[in-house]
Amino acid sequence: MTYHAMWIIVTASLVGLSCGLIGVFLILRKMAMMADAISHTVLLGIVIAFIITRELSGTHMLIGAIFAGLLTAFLVQWLHSLDVQQDAAIGIVFTTMFAIGVILIATSVGNAHLDVQHALMGEITFIPWNKMSLPLIGEVPKATALLALVLFVVLFVLVAFYKEWKITSFDPALAASLGIPVLLMHYVFLCLVSITTVASFDAVGAIMVVAMLITPAASAYLWTDRLSIMLVLSGLFGVISAVAGYYIAAWVDTSISGSMAFATGLVFFISFLFSPKHGWIARYLRLHKTVKKTG
Q1: Where are the bilayer-spanning segments (predicted)?
Q2: Residue 94 — very low, low, confident or very high, per pLDDT cuts 50/70/90?
Q3: How many CA within 13 A on the CB side of residue 60?
Q4: Are 92 and 83 in contact (CB under 8 A)?
Q5: Which of 285, 266, 268 is nearest to 276 (CA)?
Q6: Residue ranges per structural domain of the chain
């Protein structure tokens, strides 16, 4: 493996781990489409941050994207409170904010390297060339360092409030009766989704972010009913998809991010067929056994 390939795989694996962990709670909370919405609406926050500062990197990008993610969540919640169905509310907010971001790119950004293709597919191939120096470690790609920090934050918050996340995900009414601030936890969670999304956005693009947020978690859901095991499996499936996707891209000579997103689909297909409890083959065998007994 070359130095260049190593950093691409490490960076993509960090995306897979962070998104895999967050994705489990998105699936359990039935908010999978919210991931799709936030992964696109953060574009508006990034564009506005660029228009204000005229810089393509820095903490202002993260702040702008987090603001856009939280604004998305607030607007969806507000429309839902006005008796608009949640999926319709997500569709309205998602398409409107993303369209505004695209219009601003076309009319206000000018010659800066910020375009819709970049936003959708990312620039993972160029990650190893944009480096920074860290104490004791040396030079590492900036995107890799940022994603490692995001993974640490995600792990810390999930571990520190594990019981609260578990209760609010499975039974929000019980959580409220126990005095857990359900709405606050909801927005903290969406803030985590926004941070994870924007940290991954520039490196791998929106398509891979959505794939990594939803598909590994959906695959893990087929293998187990225990939350702790589901979290481990989802993170593992994200890493497997990143590694397999890189080698698929090298073999076919195509988009690396697109291949990694495709690999998440392969992992889900295998899980759908072979998982011992919810897999298609296992269900078929159980049905066949039941028919045989009754016959």
Answers
A1: 6-28, 35-52, 58-76, 88-109, 143-162, 174-197, 203-223, 230-249, 255-274
A2: confident
A3: 11
A4: no
A5: 285
A6: 3-214
Q: Which residues contact 202 (CB under 8 A, 6 or more apart)?
A: 61, 122, 123, 143
CB 212 within 8 A of CB 267: no
- What CATH class has 3-214? mainly alpha
Prediction pTM value: 0.83
> For residue 171, what are the contacts with CB-CB under 8 A and spacing of at least 6?
none
Task: Provide the 10 A C-beta neighbour count for residue 111.
Answer: 5
Exposure of 266 in the CB half-sphere (CA atoms within 13 A): 14
- The token duo for 65 is 């994207």
**CA-to-CA separations, 279 to 185, 271, 286, in angstroms, rounded:** 33, 7, 11
Would you say residue 122 has pLDDT above 70?
Answer: no
Residue whose C-alpha is closest to residue 196's, from 101, 96, 77, 66: 66
